[in-house]
Amino acid sequence: MVVYDSVHGNTERIARRIAAALAQPGEEVPCFRAVDMSAQAVASVDLLVVGAPTYGGRPTPAMRSFLAQLAAGSLAGKRVAAFDTRLVAKWVGVFGFAAGRIDATLQQRGGRQAAAPEGFYVLDGKGPLRDGELERADQWARGLLPAGG
Fold first, then answer.
1. DSSP letter string over 63-101?
2. Could you give the domains of the chain?
3. Bond into 128 cis (ω within 30)
4. Could you tell me which of 102, 64, 60, 96 has the C-alpha nearest to residue 81?
5. How far is CA 149 from the centre of its chain?
């Protein structure tokens, strides 16, 4: 399952691309906005991918609210991965990025990191995505699949 928040549509585009890359033939990987999800909804998934835009070095309030719903140990035995969208500007890194904070929370709730947190770049605050980012999302998502998957 992919859970995301998006303000200008860039993170949604990445999230949907990741979900499509994770899908096996004839199957669809669920992809939902954080505001439409509850902690109980992720109970049955084997892999949870979570992403949000970076604002002030953190995920959006909607994503922070979703993550706060996850109880300690609620992700035990689940593989987790985090991503964000971020600006290209070097000064942005001073505050950190959302993906690292999302990843830390998922692991604190018992998740096992399936991949290092990943950032996808937008050219300015509203986008568009930098050329090649959707293809990078495909590649990153395929790396989350079990060997032979």
1. HHHHHHHSPTTTTTT-EEEEEEEEES-GGGGGG--HHHH
2. 2-142 (3.40.50.360)
3. yes
4. 102
5. 20
pLDDT value of residue 109: 97
Q: Residues 110-125: what's their mean pLDDT?
A: 95
Is-contact 50 75, C-beta < 8 A?
no
Residues 96, 110: Cα–Cα separation, whole Å: 23
Residue 68 neighbours by CB under 8 Å, 6+ apart: none
Q: What is the pLDDT of residue 93?
A: 60
- 3-state secondary structure (DSSP) of residue 52: strand
Residue 82's contacts (CB-CB under 8 Å, 6 or more residues apart) are: 49, 50, 51, 98, 99, 100, 102, 103, 106, 117, 118
pTM greater than 0.85 (yes/no): yes
Contact (CB, 8 A) for 52 and 11 = yes
Segments in 1-149 forming alpha helices (H): 10-22, 61-69, 98-108, 133-142
